[in-house]
Amino acid sequence: MLAGVDEVGRGPLAGPVVTAAVILSPDDPMLGQYRDSKRVSEKKRLRQYHHIRQHAVAYAVAQANTDDIERLNILHATMLSMRRCVEALSVSPSEVVVDGNRVPDMPYAVSAVIGGDDLVQEIAAASIVAKVVRDRLMRYLDYQYPEYQFAKHKGYGTKIHMDALKQYGPCPVHRMGFAPVMKYIRPTST
Questions:
Q1: Chain segment 63-87, per-residue pLDDT in tens
Q2: What is the residue extent of each domain of the chain?
Q3: With helix as H, strand as E and coil as C, how does 65-85 read?
Q4: How, if at all, do strands 2-8 and 17-23 pair?
Q5: Is the pLDDT of residue 174 over 80?
Q6: Are 136 and 16 in contact (CB under 8 A)?
Q7: Which of 41, 76, 139, 148 is 20–30 Å from 14 (CA)?
Q8: At what angle do helices 42-55 and 121-144 cross, to 10 degrees?
């Protein structure tokens, strides 16, 4: 069984990297309809997310939080999260395909497919699951830290976000090692 893996959230300045692994059923009536989550409207993405959760042979979601990102760097934190989500699958895959050009170390045959979220249905499905989960996490963080408006920009370096960083400085879910955040870290008084 083929597991597709994709991530969402490598580029933002705040929040976790979220990865998903999906093993689709060969009987899934939506096979051939999954696309990269960025190319699907939010409404359609939510419908597909619920469909995948109901009809997939297995799926799992994992994340690397800001501590993981600071400790490992964004690339290695993403690889860790990918490994975590594959290990969390309720069914062991015979093969794993990952979107991109790098693969995590894992005890499965694993390959990378550049543009895989448009080429491999399992990766596209994983892209949809990861995007919906990360967007929900960012809406939750918006409630915790409303001054940053995470629900609007999902942690990306938009003008709204950069203005909030300038005014308030970073909060605990910001990636302190990222250059655009570093310049707004305020020294602590001793």
A1: 999 999 999 999 999 999 999 999 9
A2: 2-137, 144-182
A3: CHHHHHHHCHHHHHHHHHHHH
A4: antiparallel
A5: yes
A6: no
A7: 41
A8: 110
* Distance (Å, whole) CA 140 – CA 164: 17
Angstrom distance (rounded) from CA 82 to CA 54 = 22
Euclidean distance between CA atoms 112 and 100, whole angstroms? 6
Give backbone dihedrals phi and psi of 17, rounded to 5 degrees, phi first: -90, 130
pLDDT at 188 over 70: no
Determine the Cα angle at 19 with ends 79 and 102, to 5°: 35
Give the pLDDT band of residue 43 (cuts 50, 70, 90).
very high
Q: Is the dihedral of CA 138, 142, 145, 150 positive or negative?
A: positive
pLDDT of 190 > 80? The answer is no
Cα(157)–Cα(113) distance, integer angstroms:
27
Side-chain half-sphere of 7: how many Cα atoms within 13 Å?
Answer: 30
Planar angle of CA 155, 61, 141, nearest 5 degrees = 30
CA distance 47 to 132: 10
Which 3 state secondary structure label does DSSP give 128?
A: helix
Q: Which residues contact 183 (CB under 8 A, 6 or more apart)?
A: none
Q: What CATH class is the domain 2-137? A: alpha beta
